[in-house]
Amino acid sequence: MAGQGHEDAWPRPKTCRIISVANQKGGVGKTTTTVNIAAALAMHGQRVLVVDLDPQGNASTALGMERDAQTRSIYHCLVEDEEIRNLAQPVPDIPNLWCAPATIDLAGAEIELVSLVAREARLKRAFAAYDTTDLDYILIDCPPSLGLLTVNAMVACDEVMIPIQCEYYALEGLGQLLRNVELVKSHLNTGLSISTILLTMYDGRTRLSQQVAEEVRSHFGDLVLNTLVPRSVRVSEAPSYAQSVMTYDPTSTGAVAYLGAAREIAHRAEGLSAG
């Protein structure tokens, strides 16, 4: 198996970890975080599937997915019961990484889902039909809203990862996200928890970034990863080359930071499976 006996292989979770990357605030590095954490995990012996639930499809673009009018996407899974195994495409140049892409059809899915039976659990049902024993992680890139697509992600996952940018208003709207997680937990998915907070767009030169980081750590304690993801031109450039920063410029500060964050997430799996 890829990664076995490799000194850089990280510990595998005992069962597949399903993690939604969510924050209804746009521009916080949510898609960037999903793509680069997934790539870093895959490059260190983990088997990873990215599910792109954002109609903008930026994660699909960054992972080099070919998409056209005929592409079968996660939309067809949610609305037409297409099996995920038929949709997942291997990511170019990164073994052990797959992506179930989004297409613009997904923009209408919120409306189409309203009339469907068990509309909040469509993605969960799709995962239940998928043999996840061949996977270590499923990362779901949620849209920047708290609509039915995000609710589907939260019903289908075990963990929520929240990227928070180290800028003004960083915590604005976060209360609503936390309330929604609690609502989903109490009504639809009792096993749901916020497991990870990642600080993004950190600028160590500014007092503001430091203050936001301190505030988030005081709010969330051990949920916050030690790794801070800095502002990085390379991270921003990579998607335009249909790549994650992990392959585009693996020595850049952004790639090194996402590698560190992914390593923390992987090693936390040991504590989670023991707990």
How would you describe this structure to a colleague?
With 275 residues, the protein is an alpha/beta fold. It has one domain: Rossmann fold, CATH 3.40.50.300. Helix content is 40%, strand content 16%. The protein contains twelve helices and eight strands. It has helices at 30-42, 58-62, 74-80, 84-87, 109-113, 122-128, 148-156, 174-187, 207-220, 233-237, 245-248, 253-274; strands at residues 17-21, 48-52, 89-90, 97-100, 137-141, 159-165, 193-202, 224-230. Strands 3-4-2-5-1-6-7-8 form an eight-stranded mixed β-sheet, sandwiched between helices. Strand 7 (193-202), helix 9 (207-220) and strand 8 form a beta-alpha-beta unit. Helix 1 crosses helix 12 (253-274) and helix 6 packs parallel to helix 7. The longest helix has 22 residues, at 253-274. The radius of gyration is 17 Å and the shape is globular. The protein starts with 16 loop residues before the first strand and ends with a helix. The model is unreliable at 1-7 (pLDDT under 50).
